[in-house]
Design brief:
Layout: H1 21-32, H2 51-55
Family: Belongs to the ABC transporter superfamily. ABCG family. Eye pigment precursor importer (TC 3.A.1.204) subfamily.
Keywords: Transport
Domain ABC transporter: 5-47
């Protein structure tokens, strides 16, 4: 999911930028996949992603 470059980044706060919105979206989806849920409900899963990432 292209998350290697953000592996060492902090989450961020008002003072520190941290990971981008698209990285947060990909990370949250990536964290759910290993648990192999029977159903995954995604609300606007491509919001904040570039076209190449959304195509994955």
């Amino acid at each position: 999911m292209g998350l290697e470059q953000c592996a060492d980044k902090k989450r961020g706060n008002w003072h520190l930028r941290g990971i981008s919105g698209g990285e947060k979206k990909r990370l949250s989806i990536s964290l759910e996949i290993p648990s192999q849920p029977q159903i995954m409900l995604l609300d606007e899963p491509t919001t904040g992603l570039d076209s190449a990432s959304a195509f994955l």
